[in-house]
């Protein structure tokens, strides 16, 4: 369920209350620059990915899917276990990684939904298929302790509310239950057969359209984002995804709900929603480009140091530094991470300094911090 911000205009009509409400319009001149930037960055990222090795590409793909699932659930306030999500994806994609763990049934279900959408993107999204997705999200038929209708459209009215009991504030009232089936039939037919709209713009429209219908008792936000991912896979004609839209939406979550609230009262004009969606895509692509550069630097480093004597403790820390070390590297942290003595940690650090791999940070202070030397990056 999504939550909208609180400056709600009680008397405003919802977009679906207008005649021919799905004849969406937008101001082309207001999105054209953003759209061009997104297409350029998509091409640039594709070019970068074509230059990296198979194992690095697999690692990037695994990380992208992992964070996409984690962040999409976090948008809804649900925190999933990173290792379980990563392990579930790796097993299903046949990616060999160390440290696989058992995954919970609900996590396997979420992973199955995402991979079905992206790995089988060319298949039509049917009512049966989307019901299957919904059932994987709620395998026991409950959401937060409440029994819900699963693998079928909701039978009751849907309101998004906030506030204490007796002081509830309605932020959104979805399409009437008896109209959900007919509205979804129109939506699914459009998604599968109408190719008159640019495929990336279609991903944005599909997200918004689905959220407005709000066809299920719960899980609408996650399924909307999954539909966007499926449509983006169609746009790129590839099951591989190297950027996470959901991760960026989480960063911009407040704006996400503000725009949804505002545009849900528009009369067909969804320009502001398209601007938001394309901005998220642009930022997600930029973040992925930066991460991919780090992967390339890491791969180049290990090629250069293929014959340099480096023990397993040193290898572990170097990889962590390339992957984004949390905080400052100190000998005490080294000892804790590698489960070794402080003296051993200091010897490892000094050895890497002598080999020109590590250096002391310039900033002074009570503790000595270490970093990779710029010339090895």
List keywords for this structure.
about 5% strand, two-stranded antiparallel ribbon, mainly alpha, about 375 residues, 2 domains
3D structure, described in words:
By secondary structure, the protein is mostly helical. It folds into 2 domains: 15-295, Fido-like domain (Fic-like fold, Orthogonal Bundle), CATH 1.10.3290; 307-376, Orthogonal Bundle (Arc Repressor Mutant, subunit A). It is 58% helix and 5% strand. It contains 14 helices and 6 strands. The chain has helices at 28-49, 54-75, 82-93, 105-119, 127-137, 177-193, 199-213, 220-236, 245-251, 253-263, 271-304, 312-324, 331-338, 342-354, and strands at 142-143, 146-147, 159-162, 169-173, 358-360, 370-372. Strands 1-2 form a two-stranded antiparallel ribbon. Strands 3-4 form a two-stranded antiparallel sheet. A two-stranded antiparallel ribbon has the order 5-6. β3 and β4 (169-173) form a beta hairpin. The protein is elongated, with a radius of gyration of 24 Å. The two termini are 43 Å apart. The relative contact order is 0.13.
